[in-house]
Structures
1.
Amino acid sequence: MAKIGGFLVTYSLLLCCLAATAYGEVLFSSLKRSLEVSVKHKQGQVLKAGDDEITITWSYNSSSPAKTDSSYKNVKVKLCYAPVSQVDRAWRKTEDHLKKDKSCQFTIATKPYNPKPNTLKWTIERDVPTATFFVRVYAYNADDHEVGYGQNTDAKKTQNLFQVEAITGRHATLDICSVVFSVFSVVSLFGFFFLEKRKAKSAQQK
């Protein structure tokens, strides 16, 4: 019975692995950090979305654990939330399962893979919210699956971070409501004043 039980467990694990492969599920922990990534920005400066830009450079790291980059076909440059910006925000959480990972929601660029140094200047888009970020570059194979990565920060994501200041859609909605309420208040005040003035004039005529 013990042998049968062990066989069933092994068989189940094998089926899970096959299912994961069939559906293209990729775990971040399975990727090799094979790319060197750096971001040039002014230290200590709070960057403004829609105005400021960052310079991103990436290349293949020949001393990485990955033995070869022959399967790399494309790269995607991603803007990712740093841990300090993930606290109590479920929509920014990091997941080992890359399809469920919510930390790298912004795609900066998609380009053919080139092992030599690549440089990209990117103006921070207006829809990027106020938060602390880093940049990660994923390498993809011909099947469009992640096979390697690199980032401009350390494993704990505490170094070389940068802050972005922006007005998000949530703030814009509040601003619109505030303006509408202010206009309504002013109109109501003038309306009340006009009615009171008419009442006083009617009382004098009597």
Note: The domain at 31-169 is CATH 2.60.40.1930 (Immunoglobulin-like).
2.
Amino acid sequence: MKVSFDENCTYPPEYFHRRFRMQRKLFLRIMNDVKAYDDYFIQKRDATGCLGLSSIQKMTTAIHILVYDCAADHCDEYIKIGESTAIEALMTFCKAVIGVYKEDYMRPPNEADIARLLQEREERGFPGILDSIDLL
């Protein structure tokens, strides 16, 4: 995990983007928002004093399952997380994302959104940008 998340990581930003389908900065922003919403993503010590899974491990598992449509037990080798924990991380991540971003991103567009999208369509030449939205 350190090869992708350290400040001086081994791989270039393009590698991170290809692997996670988003920029590192966006991944970390989502991770911080999700950690602030649900303490499940905060690394804790267990009853024996050992550190549990990190927020990066839990979120990487959820993103990996969502992006690559893979089985939860596939993450065991790659991220060192068990199948039941991977499923729990995925479910908790999805609920947290909905809780954090529902008001801003999971709502019907308002007039200001439509005007902004139409302006972007004009500037960037995106034909059909609003074809799936009923504008009436």
Note: Residues 2-105 form one domain.
3.
Amino acid sequence: MSSITLAFFLLFTISSASVSSRSSSSSSKAPRPFKKIYAFGDSYTDTGNTNTVSGTGPNGFTYVSNLPYGRTFFHHPTNRYSDGRLVIDFVTESLSLPYLPPYLNTKADTSAGINYAVAGSTAIRHAFFVKNNLTLNITPQSLQTQLAWFNKTLRGQKCQNANSTPNECTAVFKDALVWVGEIGANDYAYTLGSTVTHETIQRGAIRSVTGFIEALLKKGAKYMVVQGLPTTGCLTLAMYLSAESDRDDIGCVASANNQSYVHNTILQTNIQSLRKKYPKAIIVYADYWNAYHYIMKNAPKLGFHELYDVCCGLNGGAYNFDLLATCGSQNSSSCHDPSQYINWDGVHLTEAMYKLVSELFLKGRFTRPPFEYLLRSKRNSD
């Protein structure tokens, strides 16, 4: 396996941390539309499952348990792959709910929901990558693992298996928002440089995500948000390893962004089919790709002055990034003002970027149907 292939294994990879996030909520006089959230996904959504799963792995992002991770909002590392909060954190704040504890924190208060996302997680089952010799010592969790964890949560609530009916699961889903964070970028990253085609990954990943969504709909999930893939070609690591000739209209890796765009297009078609099959459910598609693209196009007026360089990494050099001095390591340093940066560590984003993306999802035009429609439908049903 080439060094470039090995490097791309880092995309959305695992690391270690053990500090639990503190609960926080926004004050609001209006009744909360949802009483709990169940979240799924990879490192863009993970609030702490990785450490319990694997500990420190042999990859370039093993320092998430060190400052400056978590410096901006929590002022200490919290298992999040950023300087602060993630999209899911801003979602909970907007709904006046506490931050979601990771599923594997068995001592946490889970009355307001649980986060099942795992950094490094794939959409396709881990066995596929093992069979094709495409994994190192990475997180063996997939979306199916997260579904199995969720099913364990439902034990004792008469909604614990595939044969459970929506009526039996009413208590579980009546006041719950299901948030499916972006998932699938790792699948593509792990197969770069192999004989496995992008088309094979595309079919497998989309089939897995679609099946996951339908499994929850069969149980009676009524309110769901599904994020698409972001513009993965705008991540610093992708740009660092690609040819400068491979660029698009926003200066990012054209081939990677096109791959994510096609993936999202097919996923949206499947979601529309599920809407027709389950008309009582509301499935909102969160368009991460176009939200990210919009921010890149309008970065200066939105407060971002560094579109491609990392805030935390090796000071100087291409994009302030080096695989041997990634964020949190002894040779790395972080910028003075992360809010001016989009990229945090080369693979993950800054709190400022996550905040703006969340606002575009919750208040903007990058969700279909609008998130406000989902909230209004929930309030009308109460």
Note: The first strand starts at residue 36 and ends at 40.
